[in-house]
Amino acid sequence: MSECYSRIFIENGIIRNRLEFDLGKVFEDEVIYEVIRIRKGIPLFLFDHFERLERSASYSGRELFLSYDQLREQILKLIGLSSIPEGNIKVSLKYSPAYTGYLIYYIDARYPDAEMYENGVRGILYYAERRMPVAKIFNHKLRSSIYYELIHTKAYEALLVNRAGCITEGSRSNIFFIKEGKIITAPDECVLGGITRKKLLKICRDEDLKIEYRCLPVDELGSVDSAYMTGTSPNVLPFSEIDSYKFSVKNETMKLVAGRYMQMIYDYMAEFENKYR
Fold first, then answer.
1. What is the spatial distance between Cα 222 and Cα 236, in angstroms, rounded to a whole number?
2. To bridge 106 with a disulfide, which of 6, 115, 122, 259 should be the other Cys (CB 3.0-4.6 Å)?
3. CB-based contacts of 229, cutoff 8 Å, min separation 6
């Protein structure tokens, strides 16, 4: 089964048919990547994604194959030719003796439904650490083992626990806890700095909310009021439970932050539309 969801994709600037898509160019060896949310034909926070792609490349001693303007133009071309105004686009760069290049393509995107936002989702604890958490580098073995565990437990997300017994991040998200009015999230150096996380932290600072940067010990979960995951697909999604721990999904602080974040998205879309469309 192809990871490419649309009938076409872009490889090194060239439009190709989905039948030509080679999984070996996105799964084997070291690959850095970004997943970008498309809303109404607009790639959300595209420059933030480009900057993180640059950082991921530099951490592994690489350089990007394309500029921000080239990336933007090719993504807009793919959106227009595919006629898919809502979805997720993946930008994947591979560096190996066998193949060096990049691919831009739609992937299957699944978003939380209204009931999940209203009632929360189930999470599990998963004891693992990413080798280089600050860089978005594909790890097929870890991703696959977590995927099968999520299916087995019927959970929505896995929260990674390090060797010190502390929660760092989700397998495909960043994690926020609320305890006694304070927002707790892991330090930047311990996680992949998600774009949604970056925007939420700015909102928290603007609203003068108390933020505590630390990795929460698992044995402290019982004293936490609320827990949330953030990311490209879920935006801001509450946990109703993590393993055997239960949480409130009605938290006024995160309701405020989530509302401000959605307004930030609408403002960005209007600005992008005026500038590039």
1. 21
2. 6
3. 121, 123, 157, 170, 173, 174, 175, 176, 236, 237, 239
Q: How far is CA 173 from the centre of its chain?
A: 5
SS3 assignment, position 146: helix
Q: Which two tokens stand for residue 252?
A: 């006024």
pTM of full prediction above 0.85 = yes
Q: Domains, the chain, ranges and CATH?
A: 8-107 (3.30.470.10), 114-265 (3.20.10.10)
| 15-47 pLDDT tens trace | 999 999 998 888 766 788 999 999 999 999 999
How far are the Cα atoms of 9, 21, 84, 164 from residue 6, in angstroms, in the given order?
7, 11, 8, 42
* Residue indicated by tokens 């999904």: 249
161-215 per-position pLDDT tens digit: 999 999 999 999 999 999 999 999 999 999 988 999 999 999 999 999 999 999 9
Q: CA 29 to CA 22: how far, in whole Å?
A: 14
List the structure tokens of 69. Answer: 């303007």
Report yes or no: 81 and 17 within 8 Å, Cβ to Cβ.
Answer: no
Q: Could you give phi then psi for residue 108, rounded to 5 degrees?
A: -65, 120
Could you count the other beta carbons within 10 Å of the beta carbon of residue 146? 21
List the one residue out of 158, 167, 176 whose CA is nearest residue 220.
167
The amino acid occupying position 262 is M
